[in-house]
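Exercise 7b. Backbone tokens:
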């Protein structure tokens, strides 16, 4: 994994973040308390193939029967707070104030999207990521109830496929993502897929439009 830091002091802007993703790199922080960011360009990139992702039989049943309410783009601040919060499987995260500022600005511009899973008024799972063209770059997810991050991820993947997206970038892969069919590909392959996805346009809300057009 390549990391680089700009030797000159520059103010990061939402526009710079977009250009970085278009070039195949993304920012991270060393920790939630770190004052700055560094650029990352992995030798191997994690993706979930949108034409062949996997939803297990048990998760399909959960999606049909769970009691939760799933929304999109309804509470960015709560989602990124949930993603930044320590959890049993992680002591800390890389989401620092600069990440919150930049991705919050991109959310207001419509480039960042969230998926939320609610139990009443309690946010019990969610994720966020950046959309450009027909590429979606997943950033982070969390859950406080069993399977709620899986519910969010499954809803995201179904949404991306319905919206004509061509690339779902997960940056790295985890055992959790492997259950959806995530694989690692070489940087050269990733760059070809990214270039193709950026030439097209995905519709993050196509599935909502299709559902609203159904007869009642």
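Sequence design result:
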């Amino acid at each position: 994994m390549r990391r680089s830091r700009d030797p000159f002091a520059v103010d990061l802007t939402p526009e710079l973040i977009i250009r970085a993703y278009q070039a195949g790199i993304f920012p991270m922080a060393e920790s939630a308390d770190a004052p700055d960011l560094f650029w990352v360009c992995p030798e191997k990139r994690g993706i979930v193939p949108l034409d062949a992702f996997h939803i297990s039989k048990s998760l399909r049943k959960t999606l049909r029967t769970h009691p939760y309410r799933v929304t999109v783009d309804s509470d960015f601040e709560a989602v990124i707070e949930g993603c930044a919060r320590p959890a049993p499987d992680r002591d800390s995260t890389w989401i620092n104030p600069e990440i919150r500022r930049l991705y919050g600005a991109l959310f207001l511009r419509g480039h960042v999207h969230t998926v939320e899973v609610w139990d009443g008024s309690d946010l019990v799972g969610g994720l966020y990521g950046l959309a450009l063209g027909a590429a979606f770059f997943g950033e982070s997810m969390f859950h406080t109830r069993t399977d709620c991050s899986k519910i969010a991820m499954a809803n995201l993947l179904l949404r991306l496929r319905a919206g004509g997206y061509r690339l779902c970038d997960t940056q790295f892969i985890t055992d959790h993502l492997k259950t959806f069919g995530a694989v690692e590909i070489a940087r050269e392959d990733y760059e070809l897929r990214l270039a193709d996805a950026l030439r097209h346009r995905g519709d993050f809300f196509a599935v909502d439009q299709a559902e609203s057009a159904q007869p009642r």
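Instructor comment: The mean pLDDT is 91. Strands lie at 2-4, 26-28, 38-41, 44-47, 69-72, 112-119, 122-132, 135-143, 167-171, 183-186.
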